[in-house]
Specification:
This protein has three helices and no strands. By secondary structure, it is an all-alpha fold. It has one domain. α1 packs antiparallel against α2. The N and C termini lie far apart (22 Å).
């Protein structure tokens, strides 16, 4: 579900960050790590810095 939402708002950095923060907040740690990996693979060109900011040192 979060992947679909993130794809849909990827045109707007503000919305993308808002939805990414929301997704991370509600996910278990293992699922959040998978989301981080998927986001980096899918949106690296446009949103890499934002993704790293949201996940920070989250390992």
């Amino acid at each position: 579900m979060y992947k679909k939402v993130l794809r849909g708002v990827s045109f707007d950095q503000r919305l993308f960050k808002k939805e990414l923060l929301k997704a991370r907040r509600w996910m278990a740690k293992d699922d959040a790590l998978l989301l981080k990996t998927w986001c980096l693979a899918t949106f690296t060109g446009a949103h890499k810095d934002l993704i790293m900011e949201v996940f920070g040192t989250f390992n």
